[in-house]
Amino acid sequence: MGFICGKAQIDPIFISDLPIDIDESSGLQKTGNNSFWSHNDTDSDPLIFNLDASGNFLEEIVLQGVSHVDLEDLAYDGEIFFYVGDFGNNLNDRTDLKIYRIPNPDLLSDFANPEVINFTLSDQTEFPPTENEQNFDIEAMFYFGGNLHLFSRNRSNPFDGIIKHYRLNPEPGNQVAELVNSTFGNLSSNHSSITAADVNESGSRIALLSNSSVFIFRNFDGDNFFGGDLTYNFFNTTKPREGIAFIDNCKVRISQEADDFGNLGQVEELNSCDIVLSDEAADKAK
């Protein structure tokens, strides 16, 4: 299987505004046909918020005993456990990266008592590293094949466009997130700094989100995601898009933070199958 890289340009469509209390939506995860979860990142209590498929607020769950630093993404194993990532690391200097593991929140009421996964990144030895090597901010995560998979939000200066993929044991306790491999996105930080990730229901497609684009990988072997075929989709707008969740094998929901002009956060939708078809059609037209 060879690596194929294609390009497309399809914009997500607006679905709804987010509730006013979710003004820094930094993660999004589907747990049921009418159940999505999100959270704020730093300026909030340790809460996760339940939304229906139209973006309406349903309930909130308090993470008991949690003093979080920067919540950045969510993951679900599809059966038992739900994961909340406290691993935002804008300055690349954190030595207290954590993921909170709770039962499926659809089955909870009011609060959860998380188990904690404390972890380090296998290739980080300086806190912080030099500016040109600052690629240890983690803002994207999903569960696949019995492991958690983490992706870096590159903050190197000058920006080198590299996206790193780590694999992590999802058991509570002290763990090491092992670097699996890396890939080059492009030299625009808006288009290539990864803010969220998810895998579809069949495990055949992954999506990595940035403020201005989405990377769709498919036809990969095991969890060698970057060895699969890539279609890279640009958006016409740059927005604070920080959450993504597949709702079936093709469609994703995208959440974005409220902006500095008083506009509420939003939920958008995008069909990744349209992206791939657009890519293939462009290929045939050459």
Report on this structure:
- By secondary structure, the protein is mainly beta.
- Helix content is 6%, strand content 46%.
- The protein has two helices and 22 strands.
- The protein has helices at 189-192, 272-285, and strands spanning 5-8, 13-17, 28-32, 35-38, 47-51, 57-63, 71-76, 81-86, 97-103, 111-112, 115-121, 137-144, 147-153, 162-168, 173-184, 196-199, 205-209, 213-218, 229-234, 241-246, 251-256, 266-271.
- The strands form four sheets. It has an eight-stranded mixed β-sheet with strand order 7-8-9-11-15-14-13-12, with no helix packed on it. It has a five-stranded mixed β-sheet with strand order 1-19-18-17-16.
- The longest helix is centred in the last third of the chain and has 14 residues, at 272-285.
- 44% of the residues are buried.
- The mean pLDDT is 94.
